[in-house]
Amino acid sequence: MKNIAIGIVVVVAVVVVVGFVPLVDVPYQDIETYYEDEPYEANETYTATAPLTYEVTKSYVYEDTYTRHYTTQIGDLFWEGTEEVPIQVAAVDIKNTDNATGTFTVSFSGFTPLFFSSTALNLSPSQKSTASCPSEYNIDEWSYDVTPDTKQVQKERTVTKYRQVQRERTVTRYKRGSIFEYLRSRL
């Protein structure tokens, strides 16, 4: 009986010693703080280039004349003079409908111009002027193109931005523990 009691005491002592010695990884729950990028929408002001606004109030062809200077030579004799020559003139009336002053360039095409093929009109807001292009030939089919100045304007747009947000999550961590702690974490 004494041997049995000694055996039981030894077994209990071994179990107690082994049970409390940190020999295994014991899981436990912990709260971890982390940071995350969170998107949000914001209004952003930016500068853009925009053409000035205008209105073509009329485009037409009209008859006119111009004075041509000439020199005629026959042998040693020279005659100089002027004469009125009939011409047709393509014309475009432009009105600046913008709130800024600017240059509006009107380019003519489809016929042979007598003097020039484009006209630059510098117009204040609400001001109106005529660009014209004369031709010695009949103007049957013609066209024009208006190129307005540009101005800087402030515009707004919605953009996606990101901010750091603090979050928490539960994570499983491990620590060295005894068999008793391990068994308790499983219950």
Give an account of the 3D structure.
Strand 4 (102-109) and strand 5 (118-123) form a beta hairpin. It is built from two helices and eight strands, in the order H-E-E-E-E-E-E-E-E-H. The longest helix is centred in the N-terminal third of the chain and has 19 residues, at 2-20. It has two domains: 2-44 and 158-186, no CATH class; 53-148, Immunoglobulin-like (Sandwich). It is mostly beta strands. It has a three-stranded antiparallel β-sheet, with no helix packed on it. It has a three-stranded antiparallel β-sheet with strand order 5-4-7, with no helix packed on it.
Which properties best describe this structure?
Immunoglobulin-like, single chain, three-stranded antiparallel beta sheet, 187 residues, 2 helices, mainly beta
